[in-house]
Amino acid sequence: MRRAGPWGERRSLALALSSWVFTFGLSGLTPSVCGAEGVGADPRNTAYRVEGQEVRLLGGVAEAEAAPGSATKTRTAVVGEPTHGDLDGDGVDDTALFLGHDPGGSGTFYYVAVALRRGNGYRGTNAVLLGDRVAPETLVVRNGVLIAGYVDRRAGEPMSASPTVRATAYLVLQGTELVAIAVTGSGSPPGEAVREGWLTIGREARSFSPCGEKKTLRVSGEAPVLAELRDACRRALPDTGPYTPLFAVVAGRYGARPGDGFGAQYDGSFLATRLVRVWPRGNCRSEHVVLEEPTPGQAFTSPLTLRGRARGTWFFEGDFPIELRDARGGIVARHYATARGEWMTQDFVPFEGTLEFPKPERPQPGTLVLRKYNPTDSPARDDAVEIPVMFR
Questions:
Q1: CA–CA separation, 102 vs 107, rounded Å?
Q2: Per-residue b/e over 251-272, b at no fewer than 16 CB within 10 Å?
Q3: Distance of alpha carbon 257 from alpha carbon 263, whole angstroms
């Protein structure tokens, strides 16, 4: 029996039941709504693979007899509102959604699936089981990771108990297969957290700077996935120096500051247990801004042209401020990025901007800062994307 990713033994029964339901209970599905090569018109009208069986939705619903000649119906349907974001790195938003399956008995099984954008249509992925009679809540796509929030039961509680424990599943695409990499809050290892941030791996440096924490942590030499982190950095940034920061999503546990040697300069330690995803063009505010040029690790010269995509809400009168800062935070150059399309929208809009700066004596580490335009000057409305770079 295949286990449901990282959930362990308590998911095995639900998985077996749902597998039986889909194997024996989905004959006579609604007519195909998929076009050539299985591409559907939209996420509510396409096919998904649930426990190895193809389920074709029509208007977000698929119904079938529970067994030949049975009056009982099985029903699979989209639950709540889908969410959107790029999960396969092609620069085009895909769609993620919850699926609920009711086999006509006492249980309702909940899944997460993705509709990958393909031209003018969508291709559904496999569905990943969250559990039986859990309560789906939120879906977010950020830096190539699908984050599914739901409410589950405590380990050992009966199915009749109401879900009370909040859990989060982190899922990524491996090829075209949706895979759950980590789960927190429901039977997960004590103290383990999933964090996004800037990972730097080199011969004498291995650090992780989590988003929003203003600290740099020493990646523990005992980290179970240290070799995997090194390999991921080499693959993602093959033509850059050994100390180029790479944006990553990592699971692990926080620890105390190392007492001596190189570790004494850090704010603490981080024992990395699982690599969720590396996303070379990621950043801590990627749901608002994505920088496509310069590329990660590129040591650039003046003039520097920045290109990317930002939500229309990041602009004011079609512009937002951009800065280059040195390692001490001093401003090296400052200008504006300009929308290359209609910016009065909540969607992503292409932008372009240029920074000119004096040539330093040697390559210098710095930070690109892309600020949300704040015409009110209210600190509560400030926001910015900070990306480590090298300029020369």
A1: 7
A2: bbbbeeebeeeebeebebbbbb
A3: 7
Q: What is the DSSP string of 267-293?
A: SEEEEEEEEEEE-TT--TTTTTEEEEE
* ∠ CA 59-60-61, rounded to 5°: 95
User: Could you report the per-residue pLDDT of 94-151, keeping only the tens digit for each?
Assistant: 999 999 988 877 789 999 999 999 999 999 999 999 999 999 999 999 999 999 999 9
CA atoms within 13 A on the CB side of 83: 18
Distances (CA, A) of 367 to 292, 299, 363: 15, 12, 13
321 preceded by cis ω (within 30°)? no
User: Which region holds residue 381: left if phi is over 0, alpha if psi is between -120 and 50, else beta?
Assistant: alpha
Amino acid at 312: G
Left, alpha or beta for 251 (phi > 0: left; psi -120 to 50: alpha)?
beta
- Alpha carbon distance 119, 122 (integer Å): 8
Q: Which domains does the chain have, with CATH numbers?
A: 5-184 (no CATH), 193-278 (2.40.50), 289-391 (2.60.40.2550)
Question: pTM (2 decimals)?
Answer: 0.83
